[in-house]
Structures are given as C-alpha cells and as structure tokens.
Amino acid sequence: MTDADLEASKGGDPSAGEPLGEPTADLAEELATRFTGDLTDAPLAAGEPGYNEGEAPPLQYSKADRWFTTFARWCSYLAAVALLVVTVVAFVDVVLAKFFGHSIPGQFEIVANLNLVMVFLAVCYVQMDRGSVAIELFQDRFPQRLKFGVRVLGSLLGAASCFFYAYRGWYYLADFYTSQKAATGLWKFPIWPFQSVLVFGFFCLGVAFFFTIARDATNLRLERGRYAPKQPKGGVPLASGPTAER
C-alpha cells in the first residue's frame, strides 16, 4: 500500500479541501505493521508466559538460544515425570506401611536414583529460564562494563565446574557400565543409566552458562534488561536500545 493509497483509504479529497474521513480497519493494520513491524516479535508484557523481569524476551535472542531453551524445557518435562513417579512411590509406600504394615520393596533405591533424573534434567532449564536464586545486591551499583565482567566471570566459573564434574562423572559411568553395578535390594536394576543422566545434566548446564554469556553480551550491546540506562530521578525515563538519544 502506497502513501497515496493510504490517503485515499481515509476518504475525502485533501486537494479539494474536503475533510478526511475516519481511518478504516485496513488502514490501521497497515500503519501498525509499517511502524511496529511483525507483531509476533513484539516484546512480551509483564505477566505474560515467558516474560522474565530483567531479561529480554526469548524471541530477541539467537535461533540457537531458542532451540536450546526448547530442548532444555523438554528435558524439564522428563524431570517432572520423574518427580511424579517419586511422589506416587512415596505416597503408596507410606499408605502401605501405615495401614498394612508393608512397604514397597526397593523403594529407597528407586527414589534415590530418580532424584538424579529429577534434578539434573531440570537444572539446565532453570539456568536458561533464569529461575535460580541470584544475589545481585552490589551488581546494580556497578558500571555496565564492570557488571558485565562480573557476570561473565561467574558464568565461566560455573561452566568450568560443570564440565569438570561431567568429565569426572564420565569415568564413573564407564566403571558402572563395565562392572554392571546394580542397586542393592530386591530389584537389582543397573545404576549406569542414572549416572549417565548426571553426566548429561552437568554437560548441558555448562553449555547453558555459555548461552547466559551470549545473552549478557546481547543485552549489553542493545542496552536493555539489566544493562538499560538508569532512569533519572524525577525526570522522563531515558530511552534504551541502539536508537536511544543521548
């Protein structure tokens, strides 16, 4: 739609001195698309699903970030299934022990090993969703570059720790697989699948720390999120982003 079409859609003839009519629905939609772009990429409002205070919406990061976040979310769904199984086993065991004087054979080994699945399949998504508890009392007072450096250092230390634990856990996994170590008790199920979840979880968490670094770099470059300019006291808030006036 050209500018002439936009004028014509309002009705009236400006050259003849006729007043313009009310904009039509098509005109309003055209103007919204022209000045705001694709509405599917618009920032999420507070309270909407996927909105995290201090972080940019996932759509404003890279495709690799969105893919890994989706992958981590599905891993957390498997962790939720493990949590459900643990809850059911614990509940049934308590009922049997209370009213019938019996318990589920091997319930301790089942719960203990499913805890690995429950924790290490969910921890990666917790990092990507910024759901972990972080104390940033002094970071808000730092200059942007120093704040970025502190956060990157923390993420690098976290990634190094996770990769080291995954590396050492791989040796335990190989030993458990070779020896076919099994759980004690009645069931005698192998331990190595649960150990593999631990190694996998640590590795994915290490990768998530690098995505955190990439997010911080993006937010710093675009001056958004926790890197947005501070609002002046009693004044009009400063605009943020690459087009902000200084």
Q: SSE order in H/E notation?
A: HHHHHHH
Main beta sheet strand tally, sense and closure: none
Number of strands: 0
What is the tally of helical segments? 7
Unreliable stretches (pLDDT < 50, length at least 5) are 31-51, 235-246
End-to-end Cα distance: 34 Å
Name the average pLDDT.
Answer: 75
Assembly category: single chain
Q: Beta-sheet strand percentage?
A: under 5%
As a whole number of angstroms, the C-alpha radius of gyration is: 27 Å
Instruction: Based on Cα principal axes, name the global outline.
Output: elongated
Main structural class: mainly alpha
What number of structural domains do the residues give? 2
The helix content is 55-70%
Describe this structure in words.
This protein is mostly helical and 246 residues long. The protein has two domains: 3-41, no CATH class; 58-223, no CATH class. The chain has seven helices and no strands. α3 (63-99) runs antiparallel to α4 (107-120) and α4 (107-120) packs parallel to α7. The longest helix is centred in the N-terminal third of the chain and has 37 residues, at 63-99. It is elongated.
Write the SSE topology.
Elements: H1 3-9, H2 25-36, H3 63-99, H4 107-120, H5 123-128, H6 144-179, H7 192-222
Helix pairs in contact: 3-4, 4-7, 6-7
